């Protein structure tokens, strides 16, 4: 048994994910189960959401889990065991109005992890996606003109 270790990670900061993965592997030697369960969303009409915010949502919901998974994956492949889980959203399967950036990022994640599942079969690594329906999550009301405060985390 290992004592728990708290490691802080901003999943939308792609540049720090490799270092965090190395820290985890150095501490424990391996990861048996990786659960990707971080998300950001914003509500708004397509024309009112900036491209900058679209990219931020994509970084957190797609590139973050993909980058972390790719950092841990070589260790799992070398051991020929492991389990990767993506907690996603029903919006990865269907789109609804005023959630275009969120739905797009979740669709992309489903596509990536579906392909990964097929590729990892030969290494006995299980890849699962969980697509729950709508859940209640923390939300801050934005100040006028402050799009960053309109992000749901």
UniProtKB/TrEMBL annotation:
Keywords: NAD, NADP, Oxidoreductase, Signal
Organism: Chionis minor (Black-faced sheathbill)
Keyword Iron-sulfur among record annotations: no
Top-level taxonomic group: Eukaryota
Pfam families: adh_short
Lineage: Eukaryota, Metazoa, Chordata, Craniata, Vertebrata
GO MF annotation list: oxidoreductase activity, acting on the CH-OH group of donors, NAD or NADP as acceptor
InterPro entries the record matches: NAD(P)-bd_dom_sf, Sc_DH/Rdtase_CS, SDR_fam, SDR_family_member_7C
Keyword Ribonucleoprotein belongs to the record: no
PROSITE patterns referenced in this protein's UniProt entry, alphabetically: ADH_SHORT
Family label: Belongs to the short-chain dehydrogenases/reductases (SDR) family.
Name of the protein: Dehydrogenase/reductase SDR family member 7C
GO biological process, one term: intracellular calcium ion homeostasis
């Amino acid at each position: 048994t290992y004592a728990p270790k708290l490691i802080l990670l901003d999943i939308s900061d792609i540049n720090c994910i490799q270092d965090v993965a190395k820290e985890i592997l150095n501490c424990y030697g391996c990861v048996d189960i990786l659960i990707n369960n971080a998300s950001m969303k914003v509500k708004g009409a397509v024309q009112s959401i900036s491209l900058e915010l679209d990219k931020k949502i994509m970084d957190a919901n797609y590139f973050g889990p993909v980058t972390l998974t790719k950092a841990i994956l070589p260790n799992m492949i070398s051991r020929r065991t492991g389990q990767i889980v993506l907690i996603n959203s029903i919006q990865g399967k269907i789109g609804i109005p005023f959630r275009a950036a969120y739905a797009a990022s979740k669709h992309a994640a489903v596509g990536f992890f579906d392909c990964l599942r097929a590729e990892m079969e030969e290494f006995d690594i299980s890849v699962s996606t969980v697509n729950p329906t709508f859940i209640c999550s923390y939300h801050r009301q934005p100040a006028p003109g402050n799009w960053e405060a309109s992000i749901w985390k």
